[in-house]
Design brief:
Layout (H helix, E strand, L loop, with lengths): L7 H12 L3 H11 L2 H18 L4 H8 L3 H13 L3 H9 L1
């Protein structure tokens, strides 16, 4: 994990997220904490990562998700060089 985000404040935020018990609580919490655009950006990046792991091309991903090729490249870099967070989430969802 990046030491840049491993702060007491971020840990407390993550504990709050982990305390959420269902989808409705997630909607309520994230709508209060984030802007609509921030939530939609998170969702878009998650969708891009899913499509990348399914071996779609950048062009196909851009068409399906509306993401720019720059966003797709950033997500690809996170998949290739990150901490395995996307992979872990996808395994748990399947």
């Amino acid at each position: 994990m990046s030491k840049k985000i491993k702060t007491p404040e971020v840990k407390e935020l993550f504990q709050a997220i982990l305390s959420l018990q269902n989808e409705e609580e997630c909607f309520n919490f994230f709508e209060d904490v984030c802007t609509t655009n921030e939530i939609l950006s998170f969702a878009q990046r998650f969708q891009v990562a899913k499509l990348l792991t399914q071996k779609f091309t950048y062009q196909e991903i851009a068409e399906k998700s509306g993401a720019s090729t720059a966003t797709i490249s950033r997500v690809k870099r996170s998949i290739d060089d990150g901490n395995g967070g996307y992979e872990m989430a996808f395994k748990r969802l399947s």
